[in-house]
Amino acid sequence: MTLGRLYALGRGVLLPMGGFVTGWVAYRAVEEKGLIDESYLRQIRVGNLKLQLYLQQHVFPVAFTDKYGYSEDSLKMMIERLGREGGGNEEAERWTFEQILRECDLPGQIAWLEEHVSYDIPYFYIADIFNSWCILHRSLFTAETGDKRQGANLSQWGDNNDAFASEVLCRGVVEKALNRVLPYDVAVRALCVLAVGHTSNAKLLSQIISPSVILERYEAYLNDLERRNMISGDSISSAEVAAATLELLRVLNVASVHRRWIPFWGHASTGPYPIASQLNKEMWCTCLGTLPAGTTKLCADATLIFADILSEMFNCQGGTRQLDMDCGGKTS
Question: Cα(56)–Cα(69) distance, rounded to whole angstroms?
């Protein structure tokens, strides 16, 4: 390559690239040190989002945008939100993930979660996103009534909303849970929302995650709380986690029930509790034979009946009961 071509390459490619990198590094340094006013930073972010929206609408190929870009509605929502924050209120609070999700309808929530769960290298705040989503749909795995709900929940038990049906989300949450990207107290509640939200999700989950794995992870969760002397739970109460665990197992059991209508044709009938054969009796009695305080108030009647029947099948002492203490007798 001649000297002239090298010079042309440097002037046409390397110089602009170097200038961009230098400018970006300087901008990030100034931003992190707080040398730029917050309102000006907000204007820059709004400008960047508007530029991205324009490029996605008029420049980038549709296939590229669908794979790597945000949806048009998401960009417009972020632009609107930042614009509201800059409308003269210098002390406007930063929106939480729960507030962002609440602004979306259910299909929008599912699409946003599918996008995050599909990343090979997940964002560090992915657990916060799913925890916020579980809070919004808490009524799907708890049975609280009265003032405790305060109208905050967006879904009710038994809705079977088609918008909940998502193979991508089911597989993604299971993968992130098994790889410990999502902690158990978040993962089990998210899986419970999906399973209760639509029967197709429950069917799929019954095929891709074993009830024994759920029980093992629950035992590990309890042992971790005991080790840290946080029996009542970390940021999420252990009673809520126990209620979600029981409800998830109950729904997976229902999804696994099979009845053979024609004699000697097809798979044999499973009986009403096929999940029992997949669970460790001693582990069940240790972890779910005695429930954390407050759990029974969160569980629906069907969930408590399910727990009692399995405890009787496993010969747990006294059946499933609640004490004002942790699941005693756990071993690491």
Answer: 8
